């Protein structure tokens, strides 16, 4: 299985403070007094944790251990949507900046900060009513899929089982059924959110439609704190999943073949490609992976076409037809675990997944296939000067299909004319030296720079990259100006602010 948890994270450890974008202090609007957190405890049903509280140490960190040095003034865990509104009004009154946390997977560290973290994990229910899936904003992907799959339904979800529905959806949200059914944000039909002035509103295509447009791909955290999501789900029965490995000597041919095959495959196929190296003493791996929504027998000629294009026999083939929830666990590296175990420690009593270590991620979209010299440059950069103990990976995801049917301006997610997405990943353990951690970040910058001649200039906003200078264009393209207008209307004083907030 892919077990991509070993690779996911982001950043630049030396730039943690810049990455979070959280002010060191905020001007108080309540006479300069320190926040009365005890008063907030009395006002809401949820928890309010501050440094010194016994539960604070287990609640303040995000899923990315590289940001553990950032300690919020308070972690608020609301139980009701009204609690979120009360907490925002309280924080505004005392001049305390606020950030929301759904799953804590923000690759730039944007789900933590030095002010108030609104941790939505206590609001995590998934229900179905009237043909709509209703999710509280703290729902984790694996729990959401378990609840929906029990009703024979699903929505597009990411491959990481503990990612939160909030960040996933607001930045777009592709997944292993997305070429057939679209992004998570494409299936979104409405939200409830708390605005900067503390109002809790309903937002959909009829109520504040400009804001609803912005929330579908405009990134998390800029416009308010979403408390609830409503989706149009799709049927989820059995599905076919596969991983096909080739010898490393065939890697260039595999990349060349896959990029002509995956983006042009029938929409029932969501396809990816993984190239990874665990250590310079081990041979790197290359394998195609995917999920097929049609009849299992109809996949055989499509996979056969990939074999013919590669021109080399695969070394290992894992192809199986499974219940939908089993496919979720398969991609999450949890095939041998229960749903409860497929969580980080503290999220469930028996959570068995490790938090992410010192890791980096960057991304590029490509409008055209890489020529052979581009493929060679990519593979050379992958293995160049790899130190012992450093994991590196390249993860390709085919676009096309339902991803590309809307126009770039239909929602705020602008990447509708791309062939594929490429994510660059690297990681060392938390016990690594500062030099080893710096080497991870430098490798990411080097391989990203090597792809400038061929990349489209677009990047995926959910793979937040603190090094990215022209992020406004890379994440949002021609939609950015309209997003700024929405920001000015709904948060004119920029209460929700961080390094990559709209309007920066």
From TrEMBL:
Residue stretches making up the FAD-binding PCMH-type domain: 67-236
Database matches in InterPro entries: BBE (IPR012951), FAD-bd_PCMH (IPR016166), FAD-bd_PCMH-like_sf (IPR036318), FAD-bd_PCMH_sub1 (IPR016167), FAD-bd_PCMH_sub2 (IPR016169), FAD-linked_Oxase-like_C (IPR016164), FAD-linked_Oxidoreductase (IPR050416), Oxid_FAD_bind_N (IPR006094)
Alphabetic keyword roster: FAD, Flavoprotein, Oxidoreductase, Signal
Residues spanning the signal sequence: 1-24
Keyword Transport attributed: no
Cofactor(s) it depends on: FAD
Top-level lineage group: Bacteria
Family affiliation: Belongs to the oxygen-dependent FAD-linked oxidoreductase family.
Protein's UniProt name: FAD-binding PCMH-type domain-containing protein
Organism: Phytohabitans aurantiacus
